[in-house]
Sequence to fold (418 residues):
Amino acid sequence: MTEESRTHGTSGTDVHTLSVTVTGDDRPGVTGTLLGALSGVDAEVLDIQQVVVHGHLTLTVLLRPGAHVDQLRDAAAVAAHRLGLTLTVVEGTGDNARPRQGRAAVVVLGAPLSADAVSLVTSQIALHGANIDRIRRLSRYPVTTVEFDVSGADVPSLRRDMALVAASEAIDIAVAPGGLARRGRRLVVLDVDSTLIQQEVIELLAAHCGREAEVAQVTARAMAGELDFEESLRARVETLAGLPATVLDEVRAAVELTPGARTLVRTLKRLGFTVGLVSGGFIEIVGDLASELGIDHARANQLEIVDGHLTGRVVGDVVDRAGKAHALREFAAQEGLPLSRTVAIGDGANDLDMLDAAGLGVAFNAKPIVQEQAQTSVNVPYLDSVLYLLGISREEIEEADIDDGTPTQAPPVPHHGH
Fold:
């Protein structure tokens, strides 16, 4: 056990403080023992902070000691010796509290997450004149996720520079306002095809008339922003003319959810969040998915059916790029939430207006044009990774599943990066 004591210069108006820190192996009762030893001396507690990393404890108590510095130091030494911990005592002035302006949350995801990448992230924060106040691991599988609680940051500027780090290191980084802006109820709106589900529904439908490859080519160009979405949709739907409406049942059965989709929706609903689906696909499929998952809102195109067959046309206005953003705003208004409390998730060019309108726009395994323009990107194949961007940890998700008896199975850990 070692003890270090330093005295900083004081002025007549500074608050005299004593910082007592113990480090070592964590076990139950450490905090109680230390504070119990200090309670016998008349001192005011100004701050307490504790962190445990892989069983190693660091506990700091900041005190206003009054005239009892020596007694407090002796009491802390006895307690640390009894606990077998290392003690550091620092005498100083002020309560060490810095102004907490420019609060931001910087969330870093990697599979794997290298030390070099983390070093670049922390260096970039420092270059912006911001301070890392707290670091927390949010997940260790199927991706490693670390959250940095930062103060003194300009969020838009930091977000731009972090995007460069993300691109160079093949990791995902989200920068969002911290503080109260990170808490409370939200609306989360998801695209469906290639986001909530793994396929493009129109391609599944086109397979029933032998034109899947043709339709898939048009879909890819539309999602990359090369074609007008409404025109391309109407052209693709025309290929379905004459199909019996019963193919919709077959397609519904063939749809596969993206890994983590159920966990994402289930966790958001537990938090009291509102969830919506907005799709350039078809309500005949999207509506059933919303009902199955307990999703609150759904907006998509409607196929025209006459005499039990698809006519090759849609009914009403097409849900295009502008329509998706309109639906986001409409859902938010219905829920009484400002757009700053909304999250949008999508992968295609027709999602860009929606991603831009939302408080947090997330490009999920998206086309290059979307990754370039979105606030943040997630390029791991697990949709529930979006929860980490909201500050929700893997442990919290799994504990909630255990509490309500939901069976969970850990997704496989990827062997490579993106």
Observations:
- The radius of gyration is 27 Å.
